[in-house]
Amino acid sequence: MTADTPDYEEIVTDVAIVGSGGAGLMCALHCHEADPGLDITVISKGAVGRSGCTRMVQGGFNAVLDPGDSVDAHFRDTLAGGKYLNDQDLAWTLVNDAPGVIRELETRVGCFFDRRPDGRIKQKAFAGQSFDRTVHRGDLTGIEIMSRLRDQMLRIAARELEDVRALDLVFDAAGRLAGLTCLEVQTGRFLLVRARVVVVATGGAATMYRIAAPAREKTGDGVAMCLRAGLPVRDMEMLQFHPTGLLTGRSRMTGAVLEEGLRGAGAHLYNARGERYMERYDPERMERSTRDVVSRASYTEIVEGRGTEAGGVFIDISHLGAEWVERTFKGMVERTRLFGGDLARRPVEVSPTAHFHMGGVLIDTDCRTDVPGLLVAGEDAGGVHGANRLGGNGVAESTVFGARAGDTAARLARERVHGDADPNAVGESFSRATAPLRSAGGELPYPLTAELKDLMWQSCGVVRRRDRLEDARERLAELADRAARLSVPGPVAFNPAWQESLDLVNQLTVARVIVESALARDETRGAHARSDFPDSGDDGDLHYIVATPAGEDVPRLTTRPVEYGRLRPQEAAS
């Protein structure tokens, strides 16, 4: 313990779940059902079940329910979308578990999904899929799922720590996981949560980009804390850009997604000249091409001077009729009208928007990591989606692997004992967190955050090249050095600038790994596009990049061959 260590409260629990989106709440529910006697604590940076990204899902949930569909077809679509970089065991688990999770959400959790006239669940078309398998509730699917999961939390009565941010994983003197340190945002009070099992499910880090879709609190906290604990991560160069994010000027709604179902239903994309430009990039699938292809097409139109003055293109679904559009996409129509547009009656200006991180911590099919007792689920984990995620596979991943993490956590909690966190490590964690409050003469975090967003958008965005990535590497190192000397005035209680400084440190930690991994992949594959290496390598000899932390230095990168345990790319094409 250091002299600077503040007072803190200690909480002892069996299972600590960091994050309260789809993965976190499904984990809590399954953990309770597996062993109702367990003490479960949900730690949420915002309001439990009412913040985060799952609630923002408009499109839907991919699952094989129709007799004309098959798990094998969903698996092949997922691998093709991921450009065969996927961990095939994880992808196979996703497509096999998804139908059962949909049934569980309906029959046990209480979700209502749209239905056909004959009473069966209605499924719609999504880009990159060979069958209409996306389950939805209008265009407000995430709200439906999260509202019902929130109801279940009241039933199981898990301990809820709201407006509490996780800081660091902590270990005992022998190096065994003991829990984590946390900070109450509203009060500035520190917590030590001792747990037999910790589940990390905090979501991604796409908010480090200037135009971004996720909830603002998604700043890479989970992956950053795992990196600080020495865990390896994979596919970090694979940051997905959704093709259709709203452009609303300086509003914080800029980047908010207009969902995939629009293109699946027949929406068209036009440049500022009125050309339906997807004819140039994927004449067979057009707007129903995968997100990586459509995002790069839109980006190319914009940078080559065929975009709008605001740096966008147009999406138009008005040709299908205003009444039908208003009925089918009610949420999105209302959203566009808030900013003077009208999706039902005229084109709406959009841009590629940073959306989802395919990269993350290495896990197995039960969400276990290299650290005994530490599980990772949802967007904090890597491998499920490979180089690109299909629309509709995101909320499926969160709930499928959240459920698996809960089952695994219940088993592990019965096997493991509580450890005593190393007091020096606890003190160091709290000392790092309070450093901006104790520093004098440094910068405020906000300008640095703005610089980071611009840098990542310009130099490690939709299309990349070596010179810009090398510039990003140098500038990120400079930003990290400046961030280490931040000064934040004011009290510890509800200090937004202090929270911004902690967000910034986590974003920089993750950004540096993204850039290093992007430099290491000399090809274009999925969401990772290199203008200096426009072609993909040999699909028969694929590798994925693993980054392992190396102290304060940039991470150590290694490559591992993709294991074709179920399907080789050549077999998929036949």
UniProtKB/TrEMBL annotation:
Keywords tagged on the record: Flavoprotein, Oxidoreductase
Pfam families the UniProt entry points to: FAD_binding_2 (PF00890), Succ_DH_flav_C (PF02910)
Any GO MF annotation of the entry: steroid dehydrogenase activity, acting on the CH-CH group of donors
Biased composition (Basic and acidic residues): 524-533, 563-574
FAD-dependent oxidoreductase 2 FAD-binding domain: residues covered: 14-395
Domain of life per record: Bacteria
Fumarate reductase/succinate dehydrogenase flavoprotein-like C-terminal domain segment(s): 450-571
Disordered: annotated segments: 524-574
This protein's record includes keyword Ribonucleoprotein: no
Residues at the catalytic site: R291 (proton acceptor)
Entry protein name: FAD-binding protein
